[in-house]
Each structure stands twice: as structure tokens, then as C-alpha cells.
Amino acid sequence: MNKTKVMIVDDEIEFAQPLSERLTLRNFETQTAICAEDAMTLLRTNWQPDVVVLDLRMPGLDGLDALSLFKQVDPAMEVIIVSGHGSTTVGIEGMRRGLFDYLLKPVEIDELVERIKAAAEKRALALQK
User: Fold this and answer.
1) Alpha-carbon distance 1 to 8, whole Å?
2) Average pLDDT, the chain
3) Res. 1: pLDDT tops 70
4) Looking at the DSSP assignment, which residues form a beta bridge with residue 104?
5) Which residue among 5, 24, 30, 103 is least packed, with the fewest CB closer than 10 Å?
6) DSSP of 27-48, one letter per residue?
7) Computed over its alpha carbons, how large is the radius of gyration of the chain?
8) Residues 6 or more apart from 92 whose CB is under 8 A from it?
9) What mean pLDDT do residues 49-73 have?
10) How far is CA 117 from the centre of its chain?
11) Are the C-beta atoms of 60 and 34 separated by less than 8 Å?
């Protein structure tokens, strides 16, 4: 069985790197990017994640605009925004653009892992159709 591929897009290296390591220990394949532009470069190299864990506020493109770009590249890609700057408005707009879930930092790793697994299952079902 293939590992679930997770791309972490967050400009806070002190969040992204430990998260990547913790997910790797839980048998996920991970890549990190510090901004949406770097994430798009990874996507162009044909590294297609099943799930993206995305920060909302980053230099350059914000999380909502990055979400829209990612969905253009792969509509079945599932995206979870994890942010310390949450609002209901952002969550609703994200859902309108195809967001899978919206979690507030700090997030418990077990909760995030469960949401990633659920997102990966949704993607797998979408790809079977």
C-alpha cells in the first residue's frame, strides 16, 4: 500500500519541519514548502500530494489563493488549512473554494492525523470515479 503523500506549506519552519518529522514517523510521505510559490514548484515536478496542510497567512500568496491554485492543478487534491489566524468568514470562503477542513493552531497531532487520513480517503474515492 502506498503511503499518503502530504505537502506542508507554512512559512514557519519551526512548525513545518517538526510536523513533517512527526508525520513521517506515522508512515506518511512528506514534503515541505515555505510559501505557495515553492509548493507550486513541487507540483510542477510531478510530486502530487494527496493532502496539503496549508498555512493561511504567508508571504506572497495567502492560503486561500494558494488553495484555489492547488485545486486548479489537481481538483481531487484535499487541502486542510491550519492557522493561528482563524475566522468563520475565512473558513466559509475556504469551503466555497474546495477546502477539506480548517483547524486552528496549536493543533493536536492526533487530530491532524485523523483529518489527513479522512482527506486522503475522500481523495481516493474521488479518483476511483
Assistant:
1) 22
2) 93
3) no
4) 83
5) 24
6) T-EEEEESSHHHHHHHHHTT--
7) 13
8) none
9) 93
10) 12
11) no
* Helix ranges, the chain (H): 13-25, 36-44, 63-73, 88-96, 109-128
User: Which residues are bridge partners to 78 per DSSP?
Assistant: 51
Confidence of residue 37 (pLDDT cuts 50, 70, 90): very high
Q: What angle do CA 60, 61, 62 make, to 5 degrees?
A: 115
- SS3 state at 51: strand
Whose CA is closest to 102, among 73, 126, 129, 81?
81
Determine the residue type at 92: I
CA distance 35 to 123: 23
| Domain containing residue 9: CATH number | 3.40.50.2300
Neighbours of 5 (CB within 10 A): 17
Residues 107-118 pLDDT 10s: 999 999 999 999
Number of domains into which the chain is organized? 1
The amino acid at residue 2 is N
Q: Which domain holds residue 48?
A: 5-128
- pTM for this model (two decimals): 0.94
Q: Which cell goes with 25?
A: 514517523
